[in-house]
Amino acid sequence: MKVIKVDQVAKEPHSGKLFTGNVTMQPIIGKEMGANLLITQVNFSRGVRNKFHSHTLEQVLIVTEGKGVVATEKEKISVVPGDVIFIPPGEKHWHGAAKGYIFSHLYVMAPDSKTTQLED
User: Fold this and answer.
1) Integer Cα distance of 107 and 50 in angstroms
2) Fewer CB within 10 A of the end CB, N or C, for the chain?
3) Alpha carbon distance 58, 112 (integer Å)
4) Is the model's pLDDT at 91 over the cut of 90?
5) Range of the structural domain that residue 88 is part of
6) Residue 56: which region, alpha, beta or left (left: phi > 0; alpha: psi -120 to 50)?
7) 103 near 64, Cβ under 8 Å?
């Protein structure tokens, strides 16, 4: 057993085309631990979101801080700490901070899931 204190995990700046601004990531559980899942905390700056994308396998988001939005082409839902979001494989979606707010969530995914960006 291993206890991980998320607030003690370094926030690593993350840049990439998938995000509309600055985010940091805190890798919590990964392949190096021999786990069959990945858990990472993603911290979005005010108003930052990721762009429409999909995953080959399901994804679970657990909101930990701030106010956020999860969206598909058909709906946008506000989310707050304690909310858990299930995203099925192949669903086109985005998630991030609500306008004027910061936002953090844990994501849980299989290590072999592939992400495809669907928005420029």
Assistant:
1) 13
2) N
3) 11
4) yes
5) 8-110
6) alpha
7) no
Residue in the structure block whose two tokens are 């939005």: 69
Query: Tens of pLDDT along 4-63?
Result: 999 999 999 998 899 999 999 999 999 888 899 999 999 999 999 999 999 999 999 999
pTM of the model: 0.95
Provide Rg for the chain, Cα atoms: 14
C-alpha span between 20 and 52 (Å, rounded): 11
71: domain CATH number?
Answer: 2.60.120.10
Q: Is residue 115 part of a domain?
A: no
Number of independent structural domains in the chain: 1
Q: Which two structure tokens, joined as six digits, stand for 98?
A: 């609500």
